[in-house]
Amino acid sequence: MNTFSQVWVFSDTPSRLPELMNGAQALANQINTFVLNDADGAQAIQLGANHVWKLNGKPDDRMIEDYAGVMADTIRQHGADGLVLLPNTRRGKLLAAKLGYRLKAAVSNDASTVSVQDGKATVKHMVYGGLAIGEERIATPYAVLTISSGTFDAAQPDASRTGETHTGSGRLRLWRLPAWQPRRARATASISTKPVWWSASVAVLAAKRTLRWQNSFARR
């Protein structure tokens, strides 16, 4: 088998979506695309997506990467294996790391060549600061890849294509707060519980020790 049963695509940069979609067509039988709005969903279908999953409900003060939890849940619900394609942007790499953790998947960044053999991805990318090309075969059921620009040609949109759009209805929750939340800063300033006389005594003791040390040094 030289293709995955399905591939999952997401791009935080709309201009990178066409090339990721072209790569998805070459690597899998079914293409699923996560999008942030209706316009991106329509574009994804024209570029070849069979299923579009609309991410919504994120508060304005949260990052796109915080969708990683629900993205991983959706991916697991629709297959025991699969390929995830992301752009090699800073945000794409952060999202790749979060998805890799949640899917227990190997993550390969800056892929310049991707192929599939026996249902496993083989990836080539630059190593040693660009002095050589490294090749790795990903053995985990899920594989998460960030793709270098130019790895695939851009797919051409076709308005006659059709696909199915999924939104946050039923059991699928498309926004969920991360499990970890930073502590809020206390509104009141910290107040020392030690009495004033204790602090004064410590200061006097320190001054006496310093004076004794100076006197002993002067007598030498």
Automatic annotation (TrEMBL):
The record's SMART domains line, in alphabetical order, gives:
ETF
What Pfam families is this protein classified in? Answer: ETF
* InterPro entries for this protein: ETF_a/b_N (IPR014730), Rossmann-like_a/b/a_fold (IPR014729)
Domain of life, per lineage: Bacteria
Q: Which SUPFAM superfamilies match?
A: Adenine nucleotide alpha hydrolases-like (SSF52402)
Task: Provide the alphabetized UniProt keywords.
Answer: Electron transport, Transport
Which region is the signal sequence?
none
Q: In what residue span(s) does the Electron transfer flavoprotein alpha/beta-subunit N-terminal domain sit? A: 7-179
What is the protein's given name? Electron transfer flavoprotein subunit of oxidoreductase
Q: Can you name the source organism?
A: Escherichia coli
